[in-house]
Amino acid sequence: MAFSDSVTTCLSPPVHYVICELGFEKKVTYDISNILSENGEVCWQAVTEHVCYLESDQSVDYIKSIRSLGPVCESVNLHFKSLTKEQFVIQYALWFRWTNYTELFLEVFDVLRYTQTTEVALGLMKLTSCLERALGDVYLLVGKDCPFLLRDLLASEQLAVVFGQAVMNVLRVFIGSPYGLNLRNVLWHGFASPQEIPAKYCAMLLFLTAGLGQLLQTYLLQTKCILVHRPYVIFVSLEELDVFPDLNHETLSIAEELVKLSSFVLKTMLPFWMAALTAFKQSRYADCVILLLPQLEVGLRLLFTTSNKCPNRLLTAEPSALYTTFDEMLAKHLDNEVVNQLPAVLEEPAMASEFLWDFLNHQEGPRIRDHLSHGEINLEAFPREIANQIVAFAITLLCRFSDESMFAFKEHMVIKPLMNCASCYRSQFHPISRLKKQVLKCMKSIHLWPELPTVPEEHGQMIKGLEGSAEASTLILMILEIISQLQRYMPQNCCSSDDPISSVLTERLLIELCDTHICTLYSPRPVLEILVVLRKISTQCHQVSEQVIASTELRYKQWMNKTLRSRQRHNYLRMLNSIKFLSPVLRLILVFITLELLNVHLFFKKNPFDYQQYLKFLKSVLRYTENLVTYTSPEKNKWDETMELTNKALTKIREISDRKLMLMQLAT
């Protein structure tokens, strides 16, 4: 990893030239009055005339445009430096309101006055994400389904309708196009060091954002439209993200020393790391994570390119190629189907990859980078809990990739707990993990049934129930047969011969099964398809349970208040009889799908069984649970039909279990 000391830039020569040199080639002074009127309005025609076009197809000539706009950007930067904060607020604050975050743009102005390179880069990252979000809100004035990618948003006809195509082309020179400066991407993906981002480009984007506000006001007045801002994403269930202990001042002080010594850190990026740790100490948690995520990416990219012997991919790709980003670095294979060597380099490959997938990629996870980089989060309310986890994870990587002289740091009393937490991390947001949580939550709900209020026993005997009937005997027999089939895949001594139903179909068993670790990395597509169906089954079972609880409590209250008609009373008693048998059936299904979850990886790895046929069976179980939701709903209350349906479903489960059991034996 000594290679990290020799890296002076992550920008390829052509990209470095475009960002750091091209806009400085024209040595002319541009008068600010050419693009800014006396009353403070942006003269867009004077700006757009600097965008050049190719003769061949009239598309933007980004090289000539950047060269031509360079002096304009410098003029804007000098203009802003000449203003006091009060003057800037008076002249421009109004025109940032359309972004729904005026304070951010005033903050960027403060940064530009002092030209601190790290803070300029941070300000540019925040500005571009906020601008993207605001442009998405404008897009929705005209169109639907706002594009996810900034380049598609800027190239859309909808924004051209509002602002004009020439104006949008100016923006694309700075952000959104891989052929332009592409400032957003080179920063958010960790390619640019602080000193490689000219402050004048940040100033120009600040200026353009104000100009867009002026154009938008004209459009809104003409069309009588009202700009509506989409609500921010709010992180929920923060306790699920609680992996590492709370970081204290001592831990952060050690982290600052590790940053200076660890081979995980490119020396050119050191200011970003130090600024991130400072931001955390100052309770600027969004700033901390915005600074740190690109550095985690570039550090892992260094490992990726070194371990896979492709050092050229440490640099920014040319417009015709793709960046090496988190998605590819976490993949099982490279694009040429060669096995990715990065997991082997990581001491705890599953831990590191599962953590990153959880926090960045999984759809049900926080997807921190996506939400931050697309401006979907209220930066002022960013939770400390998430920042704490990202910083702690970063510290573990700093420790892992440091030489033996750093042993004392690794064994330090405040660092060792972090390393221990990292080594035993298990995914929280992979579909496998979510299914485990679902079945346990559903089982807790079903376990509430015996505590539900019920009518006195003498009233329950008014109608002949299922107990003792041939139908009841058939149901119990089938449940017992299925339990017997599944029992060989359960922990030993979990079944009592006296009462196998009560001893097997328990919350304790499910907890034990769900505690079994399953590697979530690189799940094959058939497994993921099966997981979708299993989760739907679990969801339906939970809804049935909640409906039973609600209906039972309501009917009992009506019974006691004597407000039920005769037919309703009879139906209520049938429901009470039915749920005695419905409970073990639902618990059986939960145990069944949990065992399927545990066996599915091994099963498809070793057995040639046609998974489409198996998927068809699971979908038949899903249909049963969906029908069960309908029959047990307050609107239907079809309890006789519920038991008929249950009988058919158990027959199907028993048949497929017989067949699949033989195949599973072959697999094991």
What does the model show?
The protein is mainly α. It folds into 3 domains: 211 residues, no CATH class; 187 residues, no CATH class; 237 residues, no CATH class. The protein has 31 helices and no strands. α7 packs parallel to α12 and α14 packs antiparallel against α15. The longest helix is centred in the last third of the chain and has 41 residues. The mean pLDDT is 88.
Poorly predicted ranges (pLDDT <50, ≥5 residues)?
Answer: none
Molecular shape: elongated
Specify Rg, calculated over alpha carbons.
31 Å
**How many strands, what sense, and barrel or not for the largest sheet?**
none
Structural class: mainly alpha
Q: Into which percentage range does the β-strand content fall?
A: under 5%
User: What is the count of DSSP helices, taking H or I runs of 4+ residues?
Assistant: 31
Arithmetic mean of pLDDT:
88
Total number of domains: 3
**Ends distance:** 42 Å
Tell me the total number of β-strands.
Answer: 0
Helix content: 55-70%
Protein name: EMARD protein
Keywords: Membrane, Transmembrane, Transmembrane helix
Domain DUF4209: 131-211
Pfam families: DUF4209
Keywords:
mainly alpha, 31 helices, 3 domains
Task: Set out the fold topology.
Blueprint: H1 3-6, H2 13-20, H3 44-48, H4 62-82, H5 85-92, H6 102-114, H7 117-142, H8 150-154, H9 157-163, H10 165-174, H11 183-188, H12 199-223, H13 249-261, H14 270-281, H15 285-307, H16 326-329, H17 342-345, H18 349-361, H19 368-373, H20 384-400, H21 407-410, H22 416-423, H23 431-446, H24 457-460, H25 470-486, H26 500-504, H27 507-514, H28 525-560, H29 566-606, H30 611-631, H31 639-667
Helix pairs in contact: 4-12, 6-7, 6-12, 7-9, 7-12, 9-10, 13-14, 14-15, 15-20, 23-27, 23-28, 23-29, 25-29, 25-31, 27-29, 28-29, 28-30, 29-31, 30-31
